[in-house]
Amino acid sequence: MPKSTLSFEAIIFDMDGILLDTEVLFKQASFEVAKGLGFEMREEIYIASVGTPGDVARGIICDGMGKDFPFKEFDILWQKWMKARLSKNVPTKTYVREILQHLSENNIPIAVATSSSFTSANNNLKAADLLKYFNTLITSDDIINGKPHPEPFLKAANSLGVDPKQCLAIEDSYNGIRSANSAGMKAIMIPDLLPPTDEIEKLCHLILPSMQDLHHIISAKN
Fold it and tell me: Is the pTM of this model over 0.90?
């Protein structure tokens, strides 16, 4: 649903599934670890947890998997699986580096607003050599209310000193889009694991097939 113009003064990015190609790894880890514990992770349970704060995701998984599911053990093994995988390399989405370099060269303020912890976000962005581009990093440690509440995006805009209405918010999850829209930003969805629904389409300023398309739009503006 393209709009005729795309004006902005700053851009706020989600991290996993937008900057880092990690959502597919999160899913693989969840299914493999659950199987190793003798349980079958169902698609609908996992998808419902995508883009939610950690405590919310925990509740969704525990409710869906049943009272016998050993979540604490699952979480420990999940963290171990991800640490081993990301120690090899932290994969980035195609065209992310080109986008961030362009924004940096044109002095456009950029931030990250993620549901991950500061330690996880800082370490992974640093390992991917992306941390250097960002003016601010808002994580779950910085907020009271996670996505879909607007707080993460509002705090990022405030840190950048930019009116939320003049910010683009780049997201791949439903709760991320809801959060950005509630914050009054121009929400742009670049789907990863989740296809846009009718509700989400109405909340988006744009839905783009890939980061390459976002790169074309940003480059054309400047």
Answer: yes
